[in-house]
Amino acid sequence: MSHNNSVNVTHIYKQFGNKTAVKDISFTIKHGEIFGLLGPNGAGKTTIIRMMTTLLHQDTGRILLNGYDTSTQSRLARQQFSVTGQSAAVDQDLTARENLMIFGKLNGLNHAAAHTRTTELLTDFDLINSADQTLATFSGGMRRRLDLAISLIGKPAILFLDEPTTGLDPRTRKQVWQAVRKLAAAGSTVLLTTQYLEEADHLADRIALIDHGQMIALGTPSELKQQVGGLQLRLEVPDTQRVSQAQQIIQEILTLPVNVNDRTLTALLGNVKIQLVTQVLQQLQAAAVPISNFAIEAPTLDDVFLKLTVGKN
């Protein structure tokens, strides 16, 4: 069967009692794409994953994985994917290598194939030096990388990653990102849920922004940033006494609201002329207001998130 998309989600709803957890969500994911479901805790991301992985039935709507319907062909649909959760059912007293070998065989690989795949994954996930230590000695980050390795042992067509880097240190988080990118490059389709904007920004080809069970926006990270409206001006006033003076000067010249956070001032420029920004600098200098870290930059996903979810609550 040839299907252009790995995943088709069409108008799914899910109600728990009188609370609608997921409300009319639709999206498609292309083969080899990394797709991010981004939203705060309790937004409905996990409920969506549970429906996609056949653990929950949607009330209405349809989900196809490589063309198989999760409701009517759940067994075939289940063969299309693998899930990495917060922890796989691994044995603490065995080594990383032994755990991978077991899961390889559970996935139908013979001894030689399981061995080859195990070595490959241990190398990919930077676990080869600790391959023969028991899991009891592993740090949280090593455990997470092993979980990811285990979920990939059968080279799944579709991989579901539910909050894969929650609680990890920055270095390990980047290692997990690297592993995910490598996967997608090798042709797996990845669906990732996260509450980290930076993670979605770095990893996802496209992002669906979910809040209160509804889809608020869908697009590439840069498309979502454009929705916020152009560039923003950011600068710091090292002298706390002078912050409000700087704020007034900027507001008067740009006739725009200026956001103050501690000593950092930001203003969304929209379609403001750059000459005005130059004028802001001149005025601040004339008033002898000290400034540092002056920048004109594209808004971050944080800005998108605030703008799109604000007032919805």
Automatic annotation (TrEMBL):
Keywords: ATP-binding, Cell membrane, Membrane, Nucleotide-binding, Translocase, Transport. One of its GO terms (biological process) is doxorubicin transport. It is a peripheral membrane protein. The keyword Cell division does not apply. The keyword Transport applies. InterPro entries: AAA+_ATPase (IPR003593), ABC_transporter-like_ATP-bd (IPR003439), ABC_transporter-like_CS (IPR017871), ABC_transporter_ATP-binding (IPR050763), DrrA (IPR005894), DrrA1/2-like_C (IPR025302), P-loop_NTPase (IPR027417). GO terms for molecular function: ATP binding; ATP hydrolysis activity. SMART domains: AAA (SM00382). One of its GO terms (cellular component) is plasma membrane. It is found in: Cell membrane. NCBIfam families: drrA. Belongs to the ABC transporter superfamily. Drug exporter-1 (DrugE1) (TC 3.A.1.105) family. This is ABC transporter ATP-binding protein. It comes from Loigolactobacillus coryniformis subsp. torquens DSM 20004 = KCTC 3535.
